């Protein structure tokens, strides 16, 4: 009888202690989540507010920008965007679209083919090639400015789109190859074997099976390449001299000198230069996150 009373007492104690433990865990998790949310919100404000400040000032005249920089516009000057577009932003914008599109196209095509070879073929010196590709991540673009300048002169591509496209592709390829290769390694070999039984060759397996499955990592590669090609300014200033070929980053420098003190129009040009990447990331962010996660499974 005493044993039964002891057991019932223990059960009652456990019944009271366990909910308290759960409550303490829940409280700790809630507090931690609250502080993380606060930090993320502050980080969002630090990132978003400069963009918001640039947007509201793009609708003001120069006097309003200097006298009430942090206030909302009293009169919204849509004409700033029209003037910026007509003065030259349209040409710079089109040049950036061409350079970025070509960079993304060749980066994805060459990177995917190289990653497919490294992931699926038993090559002699495979580890050496992989190490060679990885070594490309260590070289900063600024280190190779003089050799690249001479190379573009010798190849006859100086002051052309290719003077930007080829270096951009070269500097984006190492990371793209590693990310895509890691994803290709996670694809079951049974799919490839079934395709070979159906009569597909290696190239058909690549573009009929591997590429459709790899949409997330392909979008990740496109975003990374587009971000680099659109925002890069050093190569654009050094390798492009013609006004009609300048991308938007280099063009806005000339744009600033031409406008002198018309900061409202310049702000409008800056907003137009930022919008494409923002739109691209908004519509492809789910693929971007999935691609980064999938591309880090295997190495």
What does this 3D model show about the protein?
It is a single chain. The protein has 299 residues and is mostly helical. The longest helix is centred in the N-terminal third of the chain and has 56 residues, at 2-57. The relative contact order is 0.13. α3 packs antiparallel against α11 (248-259) and α4 (126-135) crosses α6 (162-185). It has helices spanning 2-57, 62-67, 79-120, 126-135, 145-155, 162-185, 189-197, 202-213, 215-231, 234-239, 248-259, 263-294. The chain is built from twelve helices and no strands. Keywords: Cell membrane, Membrane, Transmembrane, Transmembrane helix, Transport.
- The helix/strand order is HHHHHHHHHHHH
Structural class: mainly alpha
- Fraction in helix: over 70%
Oligomer: single chain
Task: Please state the average pLDDT score.
Answer: 81
Subcellular location: Cell membrane
Pfam families: BPD_transp_1
Transmembrane segments: 31-56, 92-116, 128-149, 161-184, 205-230, 263-283
Membrane topology: Multi-pass membrane protein
Summarize this entry quickly.
The chain is built from twelve helices and no strands. With 299 residues, the protein is mainly α.
Keywords:
MetI-like; transmembrane; cell membrane; 299 residues; mainly alpha; MetI-like_sf; membrane; disordered N terminus
């Amino acid at each position: 009888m005493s044993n039964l009373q002891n057991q019932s007492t223990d059960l009652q104690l456990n019944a009271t202690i366990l909910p308290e433990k759960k409550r303490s865990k829940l409280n700790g998790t809630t507090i931690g989540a609250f502080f993380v949310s606060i930090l993320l919100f502050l980080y969002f404000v630090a990132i978003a507010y400069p963009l918001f400040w640039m947007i509201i000032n793009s609708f003001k005249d120069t006097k309003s920008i200097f006298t009430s920089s942090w206030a909302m516009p009293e009169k919204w000057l849509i004409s700033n965007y029209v003037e910026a577009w007509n003065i030259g932003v349209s040409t710079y914008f089109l040049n950036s679209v061409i350079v970025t599109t070509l960079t993304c196209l060749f980066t994805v095509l060459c990177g995917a083919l190289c990653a497919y070879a490294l992931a699926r073929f038993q090559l002699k010196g495979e580890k050496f090639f992989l190490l060679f590709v990885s070594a490309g991540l260590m070289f900063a673009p600024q280190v190779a400015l003089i050799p690249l300048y001479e190379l573009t002169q010798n190849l006859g591509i100086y002051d052309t789109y290719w003077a930007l496209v080829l270096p951009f592709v070269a500097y984006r390829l190492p990371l793209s190859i590693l990310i895509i290769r890691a994803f290709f390694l996670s694809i079951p070999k049974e799919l490839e074997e079934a395709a070979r039984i159906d009569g597909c060759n290696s190239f058909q397996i690549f573009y009929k099976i591997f590429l459709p499955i790899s949409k997330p990592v392909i979008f990740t590669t496109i975003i990374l390449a587009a971000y680099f090609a659109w925002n890069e300014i050093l190569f654009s200033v050094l390798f492009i001299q013609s006004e009609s070929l300048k991308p938007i980053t280099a063009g806005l420098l000339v744009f600033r000198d031409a406008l002198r003190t018309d900061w409202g129009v310049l702000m409008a040009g800056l907003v137009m230069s930022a919008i494409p990447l923002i739109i691209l990331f908004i519509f492809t962010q789910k693929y971007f996150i999935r691609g980064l996660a999938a591309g880090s499974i295997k190495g």
